[in-house]
Specification:
The protein is α/β, with parallel strands linked by helices. It is built from 13 helices and eight strands. The strands form two sheets. A six-stranded mixed β-sheet has the order 2-5-1-6-7-8. The chain has a two-stranded antiparallel sheet with strand order 3-4. Strand 7 and strand 8 form a beta hairpin. The radius of gyration is 20 Å and the shape is globular.
Amino acid sequence: MKKVSPWSIPSDPNILFPLGDYENLIKNLGWSDFNAWLVHWEKIGGIKLASNAWPSNIKSDWIWGLGLPLLTDLEQHFLSAQKKIIYGISGLPGCGKTSLGKWLEAAATELNWPLTVVSLDDFYFPAKELEKAMAGNPWNVPRALPGSHSIELIEQSIENWKVNGELITPLFDKALRNGRGNRIGWRRSIPKVLIIEGWFLGCKKIKDSAQMRKNKNEILERMTEEEILYRSLVEESLLDYEKIWSLCNRIWHIKANNFNYCEKWKREQEQKMLFARGNALEGKDLNSFIRMIRTSIPRKSFQTIDANVIARLDIKRRITWIGNKEDEPSSINS
């Protein structure tokens, strides 16, 4: 069987990440022979696996760089009798983690692997409770901040799943209430592997948070006193989420080369929702939401997520590096 890979001649121009650290990642996932790994995935679908589940503009770097390696990481759990496993996917809003999650579910279905991907956002409080939880924040955002999710419900859903095998999670529609969102029902599934994705998944309170305001990136934001005071409340809320992070057996972090990419990504995300649903955050509301992303959590919290695998993205969401956390180049700016 002829191997088909992006490193064949001619090479795939969409693959920008270096091969060396990528091969180390595949080796760390249990494949010492890289060519054997290529043949393995070619036999069971390769880059055509669940191809209709990707967005129409998907590039091959996401398939090779994230899709197939993540499935490789998961495969061992579906082929063994191990206990139920939880993975986390972290990444700034609009980076593409939701699209990745939808593809992972579709690919797992084709492979007959019982996998469920849920968003941390599905655990937002119902509208009235959410309004109360978000009241008084200086960005006037309706959701997304730490403290807007029902931690108790997350823990309860996971515990029930581990005991009886059925996962029951809420569904949240962000397009409702003019982009402010509300719950719309419940989802039931029977997965062996659960993936939770969220924009601040893995972020923890920074011990020297007050010193972070002296960091050049924090200074550039010129935070107001109200933002500084409220951020201390946000960081206290992060302590509650650490219970959830500790349940993740492994975390994959989709990491922007520059934190400021979040503005472009979030605007594009809301524009797509507006086109598809007719409602989304716009104008002043969207600007305030982006401001919240930039200032509500110290950037060091995102830089120090205890991830196992890191994928670095440029502003066009192209993967510029993918590998084990310990191999991440220190020269990449964030």
